[in-house]
Input
Amino acid sequence: MALKFNYTVAPHLEEFNLPFPAFRAKKPQYTHFIGGGLIFSRSPNLPRGSDRPLEDDNNIRILLLQRALHDAYPGAWEGPGGSCEYDDESLLYGVAREVFEECGLRVSRFVELVATDEWVKLKPDEVVKAKKYTFLVEIEEGKPAVSVNGDGVPADKLPDGTIDSGLARRWEDLVKLDPEEHRDFEWATEEEVRVGVETGNGRYKSFAKHGPHILEGFRIMNELAAK
Output
């Protein structure tokens, strides 16, 4: 059964929401289409398992997934995404599906096109001409932890069924990985990503153009936050 999503699309991105056969027909030079979704958080920086935020002037962080050690580029960090399938309703549906399959979060809105990339790969039986589109997305789960009024992410309940606000879960901790594809997730700052891109060192090492595209996502997020 096909997954169902209830996302909205910024008006200037409607061209990517065409039925997938029509979208592919407009770009016959490509054989494969790949989609990525960059997910950001503006919540206070709480280390996993802690209730005390770190001191930080900028709370914007991005969800990074660490590739499985048995996969290509083992241990590298990336945003969720992957190949769109021929039976996807649209390119954007393919992005939403990949995001859900890789981290268990549901896209609620496509905000901006962050970057595009393309490459050619020679295989024994075909020539792959791929085009990738990376989007800034918002997600349904992106709400604050439960409040007195019951808004936000549901808290864990005590044995008697009452809700203890001290047990409230952050939506950033609701990520569910597919262990065949990824072994861990973290929320990284712009500077943490930049170290890996500019020096090749640091914790969050990426591959191909993932790093520069993530930094472009941060640029857009900072621009939106300043408005």
